[in-house]
């Protein structure tokens, strides 16, 4: 029986549905509670910090022996900016930790914090990306007078003739506003000191436990063996829980200094002002098209607001450099020129958020094709079809190899499902009744499961990539799989169990997946970049196949036949020649307890290790959204949403669909709702969920999903990642649909989110001009 491909219910769910899951907030009992005092100013000089003697106060002066957080790149003009654990002499953004207070309860810690007086002399600041680009701002750090922290430049002189010749040039700018990943469970850490071993056990809601251990040990200048990092259930990460934050380092320092246990749970306001932000970008795009609609040359200038500091370990280069490398997406662009810069401002630092720049890039590319289609009087679907990559493998202008995909096929499938002529007829009828509906599509690909080769190309000091898996069959015949990857709720335990179950011929329920514990698991890089099923799945497959060979070798000795004659199925090892068999439980007992009865079994070890480090594989999809716009108030309602997805072999289609549903929901939020707002003085205005708008179940439509299956040799599981794809494609499809609904007004939607205020302003401006 093949387990892969089945819609197997998630093995993780029973405990979660019964309320038996363990999160960081469940582990704080009996610990000291820490409260951080944060900067109320975006820029300023710390003049003094005063508090009564009875307050347990920690300031930067108390931790001068701690190393700052200092991630590095060795390319692209990168400027290394050190982030202090607590602000020292100066503050750089609203929400930056200045001091910490600890007490027995959260209420007492918050009350004590109110008695701490911090005198800050405010300085001029810059929080607006456009102002920073135009150099209407002071330098954030002396090492970068122009505030450019990273600068990637792929200048291609061959593009210029196309912009000066007879080609149709589409020249425009797009703006993506700042967002927060907003996981349901905020950041949290509970650090327990063990007096017996003189080491700490750090419980934290993380995506990269091994990497965070390394970072904390480097900051505290202690051996990594003195720290055990355990990640229990994670209530969402979306990239925000990848990075090392100052709060984590300080909590560990407190535990070591006072030989006690300390905890901190972030509240929602802290999460919105001081957890990593993302997506704050501005792009200038020029595309040169031939008369028949072929994109001949593309030139882009990318500016990314990276905030006040650089995130660890991937650095502030992650957003601008991802945009630079991935801009052309699924399209065959003959000549490509690009420059991408990361600009420092007095805002919360940026870090990866699901999709990392590609929602913005896809928005830009898909708007360009809509504008080109209108300008050249070519059908929007046809112009895409002309430009999509059709021959594989394909080398992009930035040197990345696209493996086999179904770009045109997914577009054709969408066209087939929707019946566009019928929609257009209905659109005209409704317009006569004063109703404005629109249809939008987006085509994109998603680079997934990429290893050290991709990260090394960025020149990172710390180069993530590989994954390792240890697998063991114990004396009861059960299988224990220890992985370096660290799930954040995406069902990885279930999908890995299905892979192992197929190879060993057992029920997935006999498989125990252990993760998120640096004492028990092999070193791994965690969960991010749609990598788990490809890289961790690949490492697990390799380990399981090695164990399978050992089991079959043991069975051949016990059943007295050739190894090649042994088949593993239904929990049994069966000899095909004489139909004799032995249960895996009995086989395991023989190996562990009775090897003396079969001398050749002495020294047999029912365990194996697998490691996998691929170059990466591309999934792809086409999205379509149907919306209705109320032009009087600017409200957008998404009525229908369709996804045609190709992620190679689907290990568990139900989990795949869940990933797409969640991604599309976040993508619609990206398109229509979510925006972190700073005012002209640099004060953050979106500090709660009344001001930072998120969609509810009422705003997310039913999502219809259709699957294509292109098998690739770039992934040994034949599966491609797709964790970010729903979010990558949804903003462009949704905004294109809004633009289509407003076609009669001839307005151009060039920023996201497309808020009611933005829609009304465009319509009003058009009416005024007419």
Tell me about this structure.
By secondary structure, the chain is α+β, with helices and mostly antiparallel strands. Among the domains are: 277-452 and 615-769, Aldehyde Oxidoreductase, domain 4, CATH 3.30.365.10; 453-612, Aldehyde Oxidoreductase, domain 4 (2-Layer Sandwich). Helix content is 29%, strand content 24%. The strands form eight sheets. A seven-stranded mixed sheet has the order 3-5-1-13-10-11-12, sandwiched between helices. It has a six-stranded mixed sheet with strand order 7-17-16-15-8-31. It starts with 12 loop residues before the first helix and ends with a helix.
Briefly, what is this?
With 770 residues, the protein is an alpha+beta fold. It is 29% helix and 24% strand.
Spell out the key features of this protein.
Aldehyde Oxidoreductase, domain 4; 19 helices; alpha+beta; globular; 770 residues; 7-stranded mixed β-sheet
Write the SSE topology.
Blueprint: H1 13-17, E1 32-38, E2 44-50, E3 57-58, E4 90-91, E5 97-103, H2 106-113, E6 117-122, H3 129-133, E7 148-154, H4 160-164, E8 168-176, E9 179-180, E10 188-194, E11 199-204, H5 209-220, E12 227-230, H6 246-258, E13 262-265, H7 268-274, E14 277-278, E15 281-289, E16 295-307, H8 318-326, E17 335-344, H9 358-376, H10 380-387, E18 394-395, E19 401-402, H11 407-418, H12 420-432, E20 436-448, H13 452-456, E21 467-473, E22 479-483, H14 492-504, E23 511-514, H15 532-559, E24 566-569, E25 572-575, E26 581-583, H16 584-593, E27 607-612, E28 617-630, E29 635-646, H17 653-672, E30 703-708, H18 725-741, E31 751-752, H19 756-769
Parallel strand pairs: 1-13, 8-31, 11-12, 16-17, 22-23, 29-30
Antiparallel strand pairs: 1-5, 2-4, 2-6, 3-5, 7-17, 8-15, 9-14, 10-11, 10-13, 15-16, 18-19, 20-28, 21-22, 21-27, 24-25, 25-26, 28-29
Helix pairs in contact: 9-18, 14-15, 17-18
